[in-house]
Amino acid sequence: MDMSNSQRINAPRAIVWAAINDPEMLKKCIPGCEEIEKLSDTEMAAKVVLKVGPVKASFKGKVTFENVTAPEGLTIVGEGSGGIAGHAKGSAEVRLEEDGDGTILSYQVKAQIGGKIAQLGSRLIDSTAQKLAKEFFARFEAEIMEMGVPS
C-alpha cells in the first residue's frame, strides 16, 4: 500500500516538530492508540487497537525515527504484529515546510500488510488507512490549537 498527502497545520514549524516528537501528543492523536512509550530519542513502542472491516486487532509494535533533520522532517519506520489478525511494516517520509504562520506537513507512506487483514482487499485497507490519516491530522491540529500557539 502506498499513500501520500499533505495537510496545512495552523502552527509554526517548530511547534509541529515538537508535537511529532512528543509521545503523549502522539498517543492522543493516533486512532486506537492505547499505549506509547519512548524508548530513546529515536525509538518508541506502541499498542494500537484497530478495526479494519470485520477484523478488530490489537497491534504491538516499534517505531524508529530515521533520517532526522530537525525541524524539516524525518522518516518513520515501523513494524507491528496483531497476532492472527495480521502484521504490518512500513515507513513514512514526513516533511515540514513553513507556510506563512502555518506549516505544511507532507507524508509519503509505503506499507506491507499480511495475515487476515491483508485478505480483506486493498480497497478496504486503503480507505481505512485514509480515514485513519484524516482522523490523526484532525486530532493533531486540534491538540496543537488547544496547547495555544504563540503569535
Provide a short characterization of the protein structure:
The protein contains 3 helices and 7 strands; from the N terminus they run βααββββββα.
Can you tell me the CATH topology?
Alpha-D-Glucose-1,6-Bisphosphate, Chain A, domain 4
Overall mean pLDDT stands at 92
Number of helices: 3
How many independent structural domains?
A: 1
* The first-level CATH class name: Alpha Beta
Q: What is the CATH architecture assignment?
A: 2-Layer Sandwich
- Unreliable segments (pLDDT under 50, ≥5 consecutive)? none
Tell me the series of helices and strands, N- to C-terminal. EHHEEEEEEH
Compile the SSE list and pairings.
Blueprint: E1 2-9, H1 13-20, H2 23-29, E2 33-40, E3 43-52, E4 55-69, E5 73-81, E6 87-99, E7 102-114, H3 122-147
Helix pairs in contact: 2-3
Plain-language structure description:
This protein is an alpha+beta fold and 151 residues long. It has a single domain, classed as START domain (Alpha-D-Glucose-1,6-Bisphosphate, Chain A, domain 4). Strands 1-7-6-5-4-3-2 form a 7-stranded antiparallel sheet, covered by helices on one side. α2 packs across α3. The mean pLDDT is 92.
Jot down its keywords.
single chain; 151 residues; alpha+beta; Alpha-D-Glucose-1,6-Bisphosphate, Chain A, domain 4; 7-stranded antiparallel sheet; 3 helices; 27% helix
